[in-house]
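for the record, two folds in this file. i put them one after another cuz i was lazy. first one right below, seq on top, structure tokens after. the second one comes after a little note so u can tell where it starts
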Amino acid sequence: MPQLHSIFASLPELTVAGVIDILIVAFLLYQCLMVVRGTRAGHILIGILMMVLLYGLAVWLGLEALRSLLSFIVPYLGLAIIVLFQSEIRRTLARIGRKRWLSGGFRAPESIHEIALAVEQLAAQKTGALIVLERDIGLRTFVESGVRLDALISRDLLLSIFRTGMPLHDGAVIVQKDRIAAAACFLPLTTNPTLSRNLGTRHRAAIGITEETDCLSIIVSEETGRISVAAYGEISYQIPLGELVQRINRHFDVRTAAEPGWPAGPRAKGESALRENEPLERVHR
């Protein structure tokens, strides 16, 4: 008891600033754990923590041989963390930079319905497609990996790009604001071990680009013709056509009267009174 009393007596007085400090540190640690949760990095982090705990245990118990061995490894753990967690660190910094502290950020493409109409026809024909909509984080690196187009968005152009056998069929189309920036772009594949092994390359690329940036990916399966949407490292399958435009609007923070629970008001530019599962051709006319 006297030892515990001396330990508590040596602790600094808990103030409001101290509470705020503790909460901020706890929040940062929680965010770090959320970044590596469900990934290979989580197991690597556990291994590193085990080595640190083993080193502390060796010092406490006086195990000189073990302590001497680990003393050559522990000092390099900081460098190992940077190398092993480079993708997670990059993703976290990108999420921090994604916050629009001073500006309103990019707006949703005004040609949403041109994209939706193209996706509808591609799904009906079971033609594989991958369309990436840029938001706040620039995709210039990935644009440069493909064929530059810099063209206005149109349904016919998108259908021509993804037509089977055409030179630009493989790869992704990247949309920046209201223009098709490039086609046949190469995207990073996700390495998330929790995803199904039956997931194709197109879907993995769609998820991978959203893990590193805040873009929205629209995927059409060439096997089933089903539409999927990926954002923030997560993917939703079998999206109805009537929900596609709403998901794009929500991703770009475009509030519309059609959204349930949102305040009624004037329609955003490029929006229509699209109802779930309603054919897009009827709305377009």
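(here's the note) second protein begins now
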Amino acid sequence: MTYAITGITGKVGGAMASSLLAARQRVRAVLRDARKGAAWEDRGCEIALADMNDAAALTGAFKGTDGVFILFPPIFDPAPGFPEASAIASSLRDALLAAQPAKVVCLSTIGAQATRPNLLTQLSIMEEVLGELPMPVTFLRPAWYVENCSWDVAAARDDGVIHSFLQPLDKPVPMVATADVGSVAAELIRETWSGRRVVELEGARRATPNDIAVTFSMILGRPVRMQAVPRETWEALFKSQGMKYPAPRMRMLDGFNAGWIAFEGGQAGSRKGTTTLHTVLEGLVAFAADSGVRDGIAAETNSRP
């Protein structure tokens, strides 16, 4: 079996590829930059070069495969109406129709079914466009990524205070580790199904922002507390960080905080990962110690890293 994986240089795509390689499956790494493919080529992957806006190149990358994994490129400051997402979704649809892989697994997000426009609407657009494909399609909808806490490591370590956009601070949030997302994606693409299906995924236990602070405190051996960023300051803050259109990001955060960005099937209907909050945060702290991380207020973006 040969599986084409987009986004293989990211955490989820990399974890998925590693799982497939460990299972002795053939992997075709779909990349924009050939220089990033050397490590995967050394592990036995075939390399295909394609930009997500280039339907012809994507067609060649997807042809002759038993399955394709789609990781929609993150667009953190989309223009009004999400034209970038619409263009990429159309390019992917045309390529998949031309290439006719046996099946497709798409990385989507918790709350993709929400009707209120927000930053995650880009993945709702993807689901709408690719959901009409004639081959079997699975939309994997993971929760908020625990790895978004990478932005918090410096503040926790140096100041003992983490600034949180997720509020209230004692509200449990569905979260998941990227390692679990990658391993589940590898399982899904090897399964047999028909039509369109949705799989929602979160960790074994939901965590509050305060839980994150307590876990950082345990790992760092120093007191760490969460501090909510006042809602009325968000727009000016995001614009000061370079965003032109902060409203979608603000509405996304509102959706998590108010609860209208949630799993369509509820907590009982979601699959559960096994990687703990402590394991992920411990890894982030160790990585920061080796390489350093950017200081400043945590810059949560969406449920994808």
